[in-house]
Amino acid sequence: MKSLERTESTKKERAQEILDNIKNQNMDDEAFRAAYDFISKGQEEKGLEEIRRFLQNNPKVWNAWFMLGWGLRRLERYSDAKMAFLEALKCGGDSNSDTYNELSLCYVQEKDFDAAKNVLFKAMAIEPESTKIISNLGYLALAQGNKEEARKYFSTVLEYDSNDRIAAAELLKLEQE
Q1: Which residues form the domain of 69?
Q2: Cβ of 169: how many Cβ atoms within 10 Å?
Q3: CATH number at residue 67
Q4: The pTM is what?
Q5: Total domain count for the chain?
């Protein structure tokens, strides 16, 4: 019973830590929330305005730089997005696999495949069983023309998640070629 109590206590402490972190980094700020809402609803330009406003007062919040990069990448402004993700890494986002994953997408678009692979492996070191990262390694292999390597990555995704429709579709495409 004590281990269950400790688990509940640990969960409450972790939840409070997350809430404190949000408040300390001003992520409960109206501009921050608005930016996320706009970008997630496909209104990237409005979201970028809000997140830039937030960054003026909070230039060291990695999540804000990540959000800026995310919005820019969705607008296919890969070079600008890359710079935002690199800033996110400098401000503490280097422990988040999504930062590296998003950065890799920018590198792929710029045809900097070595850099893309490097950051995807950093993401894998943080989250080794992420099917999203493994899939992106498959897409990177495809971008490089390495179909056999892509096949291995997409097959690995299906080993982790047999219902992954994206990996299954990519494997089917590779088999039909």
Answers
A1: 2-95
A2: 11
A3: 1.25.40.10
A4: 0.81
A5: 1
